[in-house]
Amino acid sequence: MASTLKILVVDDNPEILKLVCQSLEKCGELFTAADGSDALMKAIEIKPDLIISDYSMPVMDGRALFDKLHARPETQNIPFVFLASQKEIDERLRMIVEGVEDYFVKPFFLRDLYLQARRITARLLQQRIEKEGGGAGIKGQLTEISLIDWMHTLEQGRKTCALLLRSGGEQGALYFSDGHVTHAVCGGLTGNPAVFKVLGWTEGDWEVDFQKHSPEHTTTMSTQGLMMEGLRLLDEAHRDAG
Questions:
Q1: pLDDT at position 99, please?
Q2: Which residues are paired to 167 by β-bridges?
Q3: CATH code at 49?
Q4: Are 110 and 26 in contact (CB under 8 A)?
Q5: What is the rounded CA–CA span in Å between residue 176 and residue 108?
Q6: How many CB atoms sit inside 10 A of residue 95's CB?
């Protein structure tokens, strides 16, 4: 099963469109549209998993695009992220709740948009796994969806599964129970040190298997605690190396 999600990015400013696409290139397969009318036709054709759209556009603005797509049964469940001014959000968009994942107030940091897009796509991919794969799981690349994204998503979804990892000839596994990392192995490491080890992997393969679990309990921190401490150790190691 393919792990890549389709993301439609819509903006009438070609420079902004280019920058946004560059920031999202690791989030999925990107499609672009220069205005709402163009986006409407492309969305009907490709049925993207996520739409990230500017609000103020000629021909058809983002709100009209949202309304037209959500009036069609085959596209009504596509989630949106809107890029808009605070005034536009307050006056036109805040009333929309169902179907809108987030609002980004202009100007915004591309890094923030990227991080939110990664969280959304990780959750959408998990939903696809469970819907189409019968809970069995799929494989992918850490360059597509990072370990942090998966840990956050599996915690929020309170999932019980195994997250299997391979990078540079090494193998590791994180076992989740009700969203908590309860057991981890990587080479000769177990528990917290194994989690911290694999958190440093930015390239390699991952596999989420919802049929695997472990009765062992070797970790001593919450999932959030493991992520925060692991990232702190990585930052510390990078500072020492620099």
A1: 66
A2: 170
A3: 3.40.50.2300
A4: no
A5: 34
A6: 9
